[in-house]
Amino acid sequence: MIDGHTRTCGLIGNPVEHTLSPLIHNTLAELLSHPLVYVPFHVEDENVHKAVEGAYALNVLGLNVTVPHKSRVMKSLVQVDELAEKIGAVNTLVRFGNGFKGYNTDMPGLYRAFLSEGIMLDGQEVVILGAGGAARAVAFLCASKNVKKVYLMNRSADKAAEVAKEVNSKSGRECVCPMALSDHGKLPEGRFLAIQATSVGLYPNVDEVVIDDEDFYRKIHTGYDLIYKPRDTRFMQLVKSHGGRACHGLKMLLYQGVIAYELWNGVSVPEEIAMQVYGLLDEAAER
Ligand code: NDP
Asked: By the 8 A CB rule, do 76 and 53 touch?
């Protein structure tokens, strides 16, 4: 029931109409008996600053930020957490002093998803497909978790080089090696964890895949696709048909939300509650 004690959280982005975040946060609030509602706000580029200021003035407890505002919003914050600053993207705003402080929960969300799937990073050789916002966060995660080597492959090779340079310099390790996607045949022999962080294969283009070469998939022991619609992407099918294990990105979505909720409410969400939310997300993402 909404009453005078109810706190508001929300999502700013454009578009926000298909978001699953309200399901995550409103279910958490219900299961944990917190007086909280979460609503999506469609915010145009030129209104981001006004939206953040207005939300603070309205005593909004916290906000998520999605595309295309994750970098732009940083100018409107009183502080940015060290990790979010490094990644250059903020997806969660928490009240702090006389404004909002920005965090990035995508990267720790992915890490929690990996732990939950039993995927280890330490000492691994990793292939990241893509060099967009999500791939950057994945590259930072890999560099911070002591992977042996990351081959970062992108269609636009210059973007791969840019991201690799930045991650190597900010993490103080020369572990990310940029490659053009078209050079995937030059990937050295070995057994790799491949993280699919391009938008290729996303619903409704479910028959598309970023690399369609059997030799590539023979080298992949585990494939993690950040896409969760469909739940069995062409990339995942190719990994599995060559004997590898494959996961979709729905747990990353779940845990980035859980971590934001924890930051807003100063609680630790029990795993069995997170799994109840996951069950509902799983049904909703199918639709
Ligand atoms: P961006 O738009 O920032 O990056 C898109 C990436 O996909 C770029 O590397 C781009 O390459 C590549 N790409 C696009 N089209 C093609 C193509 N036809 N062939 C080859 N490469 C292509 O998107 P994000 O990084 O924000 O998101 C990437 C994916 O990750 C999306 O599908 C998104 O849904 C998913 N995601 C999932 C999350 C989760 O919680 N599970 C969280 C965040 C993202 P180029 O640079 O050459 O254009």
From this structure: yes
Residue located via tokens 């940083």: 74
- Probe residue for ligand 1, chosen from 91, 106, 155 as the CB with the greatest number of ligand atoms within 8 Å: 155
- Secondary structure percentages of the chain, helix, strand, coil, to 5: 45, 20, 35
- The minimum-distance atom of ligand 1 relative to the CA of 248 is 41
Which pLDDT tens digit goes with each residue over 35-88?
999 999 999 999 999 999 999 999 999 999 999 999 999 999 999 999 999 999
Q: How far apart are CA 164 and CA 7, in angstroms?
A: 41
Can you list the alpha helix ranges (DSSP code H) found in 195-270? Answer: 214-218, 234-241, 250-265
pTM of the model: 0.95
Q: Determine the residue type at 225.
A: D
Query: In the structure encoding, which two tokens stand for residue 168, read together?
Result: 């190597």
Q: Are 86 and 68 in contact (CB under 8 A)?
A: no
